[in-house]
Model the fold of this input.
Amino acid sequence: MVVRTSCSTNAAPVTVSIPLSFRQDGKVRVANDTVPLDFLAERVRQVLADRLDKSVVLAGDGNVNLNELMRIMDKLKEGGVEKVGIQTMRPDRKSTR
Done:
């Protein structure tokens, strides 16, 4: 007997974007929502609630430093993220954000 649930298994990955303005306002983007860093763990928890895959893709401006990246990754782990993929762009390409 196969039991099917309503959990998303083949959904597109959740993307967390770190915009240029992060240093000024401390906000990131989760899917289409702008979220203050203090609320990132809760928002990610909500987004991942019905997913079997608890992974996210982290995409950021090239000027994000390691300390900022680690703060964001800590919040993602608090929110239940099991794996974080980091999206990069080739050095010869400019960001479209």
In short: Strands lie at 14-18, 27-30, 33-36, 55-60, 83-87. Residues 37 and 72 are 7 Å apart (CA to CA). Residues 1-6 have pLDDT under 50 and may be disordered. The radius of gyration is 14 Å.
